[in-house]
Amino acid sequence: MDTEQFRKHGKEMVDYICEYLETIKQRRVTPTVNPGWLKNQIPLEAPVHPEAFDAIMKDVENIIMPGVTHWQHPRFHAYFPSGNSFPSILADMLSDAIACIGFSWAASPSCTELETIVLDWLGKAIGLPEEFLTFSEEASKTISSARQGDSETEIHNGKGGGVLQGSASECIFVCMLAARAQAIKRLRKLHPFIEEGVLLSKLMAYCSKESHSCVEKGAMMAFVKLRILEPDENNSLRGATLRQVMEQDEAMGLIPFFVSTTLGTTSCCSFDNIPEIGLVCQQFETVWLHVDAAYAGSAFICPEFRSLMNGIQYADSFNLNTNKWLLTNFDCSCLWVKDRFKLTCALVVDPLYLQHGYAGAVDYRHWGIPLSRRFRSLKLWFVLRTYGISGLQKYIRHHCQLAKRFERLVKSDNKFEVLNDVKMGLVCFRLKDDPTNKLNKKLLETINESGKLHMVPSLVHDKYVIRFCVVAEHATEDDIDYAWKIIKETAVTVVYNEQELTEKREEQVDEVFELSERKKKDDLAYRRSFFVRMVSDPKIYNPIIARSSPGSRRHTHLSSMDDDIHDPLSIATSDTEDTMTQPASSWISWPLAFLFQGVFDDKEGNDVPVRLVI
């Protein structure tokens, strides 16, 4: 593809993207395909000869799109938002065109320095303490003076700073590695003759049950122990809980070294008590306190939400995802640390071919796991400049207002309940009176299968809930009202069907019980009738008499009896006349057992009257 072809197809692609986003409401939210479906649509080997771009785009619409879950759909309410905006898309186009690999300052000075400045911008906008910034207020004044005088001025940086990572998982993991390195460094000074592996086995990290699963995965990869703690009734981790277990662990010879807290948990958007936890961490020399605000952190750009991060001054690191709730496309996770040297000393590998002669310059390859880094700061810079702080605040507040609207709709119906404290854009709700969660699971399954909405479940206070998150950038009140309409209508159908099914089951149980009772009565009535006939006609129960009588019919219940039965009271000789002279009382010796077989053993009793006549 040459320049002219790119120009032509580039315009076509922009048109396609605009058309896709403008008409996305007409598409089904989730696909209806099964795993492995695409291998039947696309050849399993790459084409040998070039193909036309128009043919590729045709396959995008006909083959790829049917298998896409549309995260930008106004009916998508499953997870936290996937940031997206036109300025961010355009910036990614430019970043891909520049195609620099910014692992060091020398590899691309603008790529490095824009990242530093933009993260200071955002850190100030959300109210982070100055210790987390690269440039202090004094440095900012120095920069202004240098601009005015147009002269080279030495700028003194602080110890803190920010860096862009691929995800919140990476942010937490690199902070855990930095905390581990600091703890081992201190312990080796105290215990120089103990092997590092032994010291590592003593390290203990902590998080809440509500923390993201990436904390547990990070502990696995860092080869450290992790203790998962119970939050309080508001799903908030408290200082007293943390202090108790840390003291217990220390008494057992373990070494607390890392605490991961959350502002805006995934399950219900709850907030750990950072002021209490921070004071506890201050009592332990080796503990690194991390605050994960992947979703809720973006809301701190609004002053009214900043009280939720009280205690942030105690933290050693803090992260948020602009690619969640700040209109910036994935991947663009922001991490700030108070002391960047503690972070980089755990991750520095410096071969000759990566070194350069610019002393003091920031090399972001030392701030994370990968060496190669894209020009990600461009899209955050574009978004911050295009929307401005005021535009982003308006967007966040609008989402929070829509979530409150949905909360009011749920609470207006006494069949439903809300189980979380709705502070941001997430509402956790469920049908009441469903101890087995069967109705709520069926409700969510039916809605998702319809393709009209998409939501996911979670657990709040060990109860199954449905998560409803406001996601789309241009979501409206009509979108919220439509979602509630679908939920209510589906709930009515699910509850009615379940009631109908329950009634059918009860009817079937009743029918089985009636048949069982009828059989018992019929069996007993038959036995009573047999006894009455037995007294008047010995042939009914005596096989020898029945056999000796011409044309007589042996009773089916006794057909299995043979001639060799020798009862002490039965016939002693083979002579018929002698047989008939035997006492009649001998005839009823075993039929009585037949009559009462199971009657006196019947634990439930029987209401068929029995009268014994001898």
From TrEMBL:
Keywords: Decarboxylase, Lyase, Pyridoxal phosphate
Coiled-coil segments: none
UniProt GO MF annotations: carboxy-lyase activity; pyridoxal phosphate binding
Domain of life (superkingdom): Eukaryota
Alphabetized InterPro entries for the sequence: Aromatic_deC, PyrdxlP-dep_de-COase, PyrdxlP-dep_Trfase, PyrdxlP-dep_Trfase_major, PyrdxlP-dep_Trfase_small, Pyridoxal-P_BS
Modified residues (N6-(pyridoxal phosphate)lysine): K324
Stored PROSITE patterns: DDC_GAD_HDC_YDC
Pfam family, one: Pyridoxal_deC
Biological process, per Gene Ontology: amino acid metabolic process; carboxylic acid metabolic process
GO CC annotation, single: cytoplasm
Requisite cofactors: pyridoxal 5'-phosphate
Family per similarity comment: Belongs to the group II decarboxylase family.
Protein name as annotated: Tyrosine decarboxylase
